[in-house]
Each structure stands twice: as C-alpha cells, then as structure tokens.
Amino acid sequence: MYNFDLIKPKTLADAVAAMGDGAQALSGGQTLLPTMKQRLADPGTLVSLTGIPELQGVCQGDGGIIIGGATPHAVVAKEALKYYPALAALAGQIGDPAVRNRGTIGGSIANNDPSACYPAAALGSGAIIQTNAREIAADDYFLGMFETALDDGEIVTAVKFPVPQVAAYIKFVQPASRFALVGVFVAKFADGVRVAITGASNNGVFRWSEAEAALSANFTPDAIAGLTLPADDMIADLHGSADYRAHLCGVMTKRAVIAAG
C-alpha cells in the first residue's frame, strides 16, 4: 500500500471541500482498501464519509424511502424492513456480517461492481441517486462496468427508492465472495414491472426490457417461459460460462417473480 493522508470531516460541506486533486471518497472501503493494498490505486488522500451524521440513516420520504449514502448494509437490512422488505432482504444477503457492518450503500452504488447487489435494487426500483451536486435517475446513472455518471469529486449523499406494490431480489450466490453470480431484482409498480439483473453482463447491471413487458401484462413466471437473453455480452469466467449466466437470468427472474407474488 502506498502512503496516503486520511481526512475525517464531520459535515458534508467539509467533505466536499476536502475533495481536491487526488482525493478519493472513502465510505465502507470494501473495494478501495483491498485495491490500495495491492498497489492498484494510489489516491494520495482519502476523505472518510462514515463520521458524517447527515449521510446516515433510513427514513420515509415522499413516495418512498431515503437512505443516506454512508448507511451500512446491516442498518439498511434492519431499518428498511418496515418500509421496503425486498430491499432490506437484499441488504441482509450482502457478504458476511463483517462486510454488512462496514460496507455502505453509497460506496456500493459509487463503485458499481458488475456483481454487486445494490445496483440491481436501484435500477429495478427506479431509484434516484442524490449527490452533493444533483439528483440522477438510476436509468441514467449506471453506465457500464465500474462506470457511473458521477463526476470527479462528486459524493453519493443518499439514494431515494420508490416503493413498489411487490418486489423481490433473488441471487445465485458465488460461495467464496458472496457476490451474485446472477442476481435479479423484480419490482411491480402500478404502471408496470421493472427487472434489473446484476452479475451477468460485461456491461454491468442492466434492465431486461422483454421480461418487463411480458410481466407487466401478466405477472406470473409463465409470462417469461419462452424468453431468453443472448450470451454475447455475458461474463464468462471460472465460475460460469456466458451461456450458463444467460440461462441463470431466466431462472432467477422466474424465482424472483414467485417470491414477489
């Protein structure tokens, strides 16, 4: 690990002011710190967000719930249960207890790992990612593998989730990492169904539009019985081939519909 400076601001304004040249926001650190240990990143200065009260907590807002960017997964799993059970269940499946007590929703959303769970929840729910500078719709936020619409120095301050009529998240767990080999978030709203898939594509989290149309017309597993996804852009590694992941997308979507219904 290279030498670095650590700044621990107490307010969001101080954190934004500290995000100068070479500075990197540090939330849970579940990806950033291992990357730094391998000397694959050298931010120079880390700005810790975990000691800022205004970035933490779960509360009810207009049309849904608002979760502070520095809120740990374990807190989301507990406090979101009464507002959005499917989201709380997703948070409770992330990693192990150590990861859930340290990792944060904002860190996950900002990192946009192609196998992370929260991107599926945000995209599947039609969430709004709030930063220190603006609000970004989830459909416009996730741009590709480890790529988001965030500008340099921009901090995820909260995520606003509309609450659907019913929803569920089902993932095929990679046992060693606890990441999703394939994870599917299905949410049924009054105006239609959203289906977001993580862990499968080289382009990161994505919406399955054909499944959405079929499930909006008939919210049952049978509605997507004949649908398949092409394997062209699917991840292929030692854990599963591209064809296998494409197949899992359909299987896990059906299971999510069953769980939601």
Q: If you had to describe this structure to a student in words, what would you say it looks like?
A:
This protein is of the alpha+beta class. It has two domains: 5-38 and 55-162, 2-Layer Sandwich (Uridine Diphospho-n-acetylenolpyruvylglucosamine Reductase, domain 3), CATH 3.30.465.10; 166-260, 2-Layer Sandwich (Enolase-like, domain 1). 31% of the residues lie in helices and 25% in strands. It has ten helices and 14 strands. It has helices spanning 12-18, 32-37, 73-79, 85-92, 97-102, 105-111, 118-125, 138-141, 209-217, 242-260; strands spanning 5-7, 23-26, 45-48, 58-61, 64-68, 128-131, 135-137, 142-144, 147-148, 156-162, 166-173, 180-189, 192-198, 206-207. It has a five-stranded antiparallel β-sheet. It has a four-stranded antiparallel β-sheet with strand order 11-12-13-14, sandwiched between helices. Strand 6 and strand 7 (135-137) form a beta hairpin. Helix 3 (73-79) packs antiparallel against helix 4. It is globular.
